[in-house]
Design a protein that fits this description.
With about 220 residues, this protein is mainly alpha-helical. It is built from eight helices and three strands, in the order βααααααααββ. Helix content is about 70%, strand content about 5%. Strand 2 and strand 3 form a beta hairpin.
Length: about 220
């Protein structure tokens, strides 16, 4: 069970701006593969940061954390907890967000079929655009913030900062390991974030406040 509050005008503008940015990013990448996004990728690759063993180890750890096995385990654990707590609305928000993000990501990989950067330090399977790791990082972390924190609280603000930081770290790791272009991880972050907001908007929740089921009272 979930309580809902309406999106404020400023929030609606932010949501629509994010949706438009995501659509434009996908459209530009599809219609102009060697255009602005390609130039951004070449610029990022030209920086050629020196790689340290510690940074590579951290990036490899994020590769595992964002991989299929760990991601599925987290999804199932969160979904099971929400189901046991009878927070049906939050359960559907959680499942809808991760499924929508995954579906768009896989469809984009098939549609764009972009080659990976040369010299990847980890095993890669599917096409490069968008980054599945970054897509899932954004979708799961933001959905978790929406589901488990109350609007307007310190916990919500801290959660947003942590979600952004985690998504940025995951994106960094994918480029550091040469598994993705910079445009791939930006596209993935946009897709994952937009998926959560779109599911929330479609479900009519906008921003959900978790319900204290033990007392039967919604959070303020």
């Amino acid at each position: 069970m979930s309580a809902t509050i309406a999106l404020r005008p400023a929030h609606r503008i932010a949501v629509w701006a994010l949706v438009v940015a995501t659509v434009l990013w996908l459209a530009v990448e599809l219609a102009w593969p060697g255009g602005p996004i390609g130039a951004l990728d070449r610029w990022w690759a030209s920086l050629g940061p020196p790689r340290s063993e510690a940074a590579i180890a951290l990036a490899r750890l994020l590769d595992v954390v964002g991989g299929v096995v760990v991601s599925v385990a987290i999804r199932v654990a969160v979904a099971s907890w929400l189901w046991l707590r009878r927070r049906t609305g939050d359960l559907w928000l959680w499942l809808g967000s991760v499924v929508a993000a995954e579906a768009v990501s896989l469809a984009a990989k098939y549609l764009y079929d972009r080659p990976r950067p040369p010299g990847s330090l980890v095993e890669t399977v599917t096409a490069s655009f968008p980054s599945g790791h970054t897509t899932n990082a954004a979708a799961m972390s933001i959905a978790a913030v929406v589901v488990f924190t109350r609007p307007g609280t310190l916990g919500r603000r801290v959660g947003i900062v942590l979600a952004i930081s985690y998504t940025a770290a995951m994106g960094w790791s994918r480029t550091y390991l040469q598994a993705h272009w910079l445009g791939d991880v930006i596209g993935g972050a946009l897709i994952g974030t937009t998926a959560v907001l779109a599911v929330a908007a479609v479900s009519g929740s906008g921003i959900r406040a978790a319900t204290d089921t033990s007392r039967g009272r919604p959070h303020p």
